[in-house]
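A note on notation is needed here, since sequence and fold are reported together in a single record. The reader may check this reading against the record printed directly beneath this paragraph.
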Amino acid sequence: MPRMSYRGYNDTDPRLHPGYGRESRREQGGETLARVINVVVGLVTTVFVLHVVFVVAGANKHNGFVSLVHQVAKALVLGFGDVFTPDDAKIGVVLNYGLAAIIYAVVGQLIVRALRRR
């Protein structure tokens, strides 16, 4: 027969204790931050992919959306915008912005994993 406490619930079953299953604020904060980082990294890599597609497809640079994507991508590429300098500018954009997207994704996932291990 299970041991009963003075409150009338089974002391040996942790699921029956008040607060079971609740994460601490610290754990909740870490998970929330991990989700935010995932979203931000997803948005940044999407901007890079759109920029590459627009350049390769020869999109109208005077279009508002294309121009916005170009400006945001240029601001976020940091030092990766001129790592490769091939003769063809389109190949340079594919390589440089592709590299930046990969680095953002890898670093973002490493940070998320570190936050979720805590």
Summary: The chain has a mean pLDDT of 86. Residues 1 and 47 are 62 Å apart (CA to CA). The radius of gyration is 24 Å. Residues 14-117 form one domain.
